[in-house]
Amino acid sequence: MKKIFIISIVSFALFATSCDKMLDINENPNYPVSASADLSLASGEVFITSAIGGDLQLMGSMWSQFYAQHTGSNQYTNIDSYNLPNSNSYITRSWSLLYAGALPDLENVITKSAEENEWNLWVQGQTLKAFTYHVLVDFYGEVPFKEANKGISVNPAYDSGREVNAGIITILNQAIAKKADALTAESLLLDSRRKSDLILNGDIATWIQFAKTLKLKILLRDYATNKTEINTLLAEGDLLATDVAFSKFTDKENNSNPLFENDRRKLNTTNNLRASSTLVIYLNANKDPRKDIFFSKSYSFLHPEDEDDLPIDTIVGLPQGGYTLGSSWTPVSSKAILDATDPVYLMSAAESHFLQAECLVLDNKNTEAKTQYDLGVTAAFSQWGLDAAPFIAPAGAYYFDETVLSSQESKLEAIWRQKWISAVRSQGWNSFFEINRTGYPVYGSVDSRNAAYVVGDLAPSINSVLPTKEFPRRLIYPKSSTDFNPNAPKVSIPMQTKMWWHKQ
User: Fold this and answer.
1) Distance between CA atoms of residues 362 and 412, nearest Å
2) What is the 3-state secondary structure (H, E, C) of 131-187?
3) How would you write 356-395 as a 3-class SS string?
4) Which one has a higher pLDDT value, 410 or 297?
5) Per-residue pLDDT for 1 more than 70?
């Protein structure tokens, strides 16, 4: 197991990108097919963590308008302007990490553990497999599923998003049905084998809760169709109340959080990621103390040419896509705070509570919804050692007041806005999904400097290459797949194209 910790997340990422042309999503020639189930589980978890904690976290956080590219550098201008061709590493790398890295490992876990009746490992492998396809289908749309990693075809067909989501539910149902066998296997497991799970330390009860909450999340893509099944899950009450996260990082080279490692340690600068004014304006308007957790204060002059101007001692955001605004913004905008040991979240307790609150509002159970909403806000504040009580109390900025939130939509908006904030520095990749699914924050039409800007709306990127007032809703298919798989879509789907479950 020492070897697993020593292998860096960054090394996995570099391996995947350097092998794009030789990697096929059915067969990785460097994959050790004889690896034991427990070691394959750890390896699969590292691949997933590298993908969602690195490039996908970066893109999701910028497109959720948590961060903007700084005026004094240009590392992420292509992300901030939505200018990502299919050969760009931000497009190709995560695809390779998940298809050529995580999924073969997880298939090995599932096969080997079934042979050995290690149903605890089997449940973990199944749940992570479902999670991996969830990330892929929600970022790319139609993706290989039925024929992927099965040896059926070296050029697997692409399945529709609806088909993939149905398949994910089947995988999760299979995992949930094995709970009793998995708990028995867990009780017999040696500590050395349990430690192969780098996310939940082999805790099967929590793995089952994760599987059920992930199932709830997927079912919510189509609430009307899945209402009965959703209500069954809520009635059981066996849903997550804790975080599911990879937190084994240390502040050492190649052992830290992937985004920190790539942005801070490898680039050796803190200048790229700055606070987006979209988020800062909203946090400042609500006097939300989390802004000091997310961003550093600026002590420079807002307008250096004005001798009467006073120094700032607050959080200052940069307009989205504003990396060409000029040098006067260079010392002003607040830096994004990242830490080497920040966990990578697959799902947070806050997300679980917000999902439940949403379902309860849709079922007109508003009192129960308020309970789950309050638990979600509390969990989101507690994650950073802060107290949410003043904010969810009557007259608090985030009070869930049914007398004010008179319509179903207004109640849902309150939930979804809090989910948006809860994802900062933790689940930017997931926030990108939820913004498109829910319609909140709303895609606005003017940037944050405009007098008509509405606080809390997302602003069009100043340097966007997309059609006017459009926003990204998906990743385009990577060249590494479209060039070598004749079954890949022949026409590139534009980044701004909605998926079937998108509201905006």
Assistant:
1) 8
2) HHHHHHHHHHCCEECCCCCCCCCCCCCEECHHHHHHHHHHHHHHHHHCHHHHHHHHH
3) HHHHHHHCCCHHHHHHHHHHHHHHHHHCCCCCCHHHHCCC
4) 410
5) no
Mean pLDDT for 123-146 is: 97
Cα–Cα distance for residue pair 101/305, rounded to 1 Å = 53
Nearest to 278 by CA among 80, 474, 503, 449: 449
Q: Would you state the structure tokens that stand for residue 474, as one six-digit string? A: 């998906």
**What pLDDT is attached to residue 363?**
97
Quick count: other Cβ atoms within 10 Å of Cβ 18?
Answer: 11
Measured CA to CA, the distance from residue 28 to residue 34 in angstroms comes to 13
Using pLDDT thresholds of 50, 70 and 90, give the confidence band for residue 190.
low
Please say if the pLDDT value at position 297 is more than 90. no
Q: What torsion, rounded to 10 degrees, do the Cα atoms 224, 225, 229, 230 define?
A: -30
Q: Are 373 and 415 in contact (CB under 8 A)?
A: yes
- Residue 30 in tokens: 């460097």
Q: Long-range contact list for 451-458, CB < 8 A, 24+ apart? A: 455/281, 455/282, 455/285, 456/281, 456/282, 456/417, 457/278, 458/64, 458/65, 458/278, 458/320
| Higher per-residue confidence, 475 vs 469 | 475
Helix (H, G, I), strand (E, B) or coil at 333: coil
Contact residues for 190 (Cβ-Cβ < 8 A; gap 6+): none
Q: State the average pLDDT over residues 90-118.
A: 95
Closest listed residue to residue 260, CA positions, set 6, 5, 8, 2: 8
Residues paired with residue 301 on neighbouring β-strands, in sequence order: 311
The string of pLDDT tens digits covering residues 333-388 is: 899 999 999 999 999 999 999 999 999 999 999 999 999 999 999 999 999 999 99
Closest CA to 210 of 166, 185, 181, 246: 246
Closest CA to 368 of 356, 379, 377: 356
Q: Are the beta carbons of 178 and 217 closer than 8 angstroms?
A: no
- Please tell me the distance from the alpha carbon of residue 131 to that of residue 210, in angstroms, as a whole number: 10
Query: How far, in whole angstroms, is CA 64 from its chain's centroid?
Result: 11
Backbone angles phi, psi at 324, to 5 degrees: -105, 15
Cβ count within 10 A of residue 87:
12
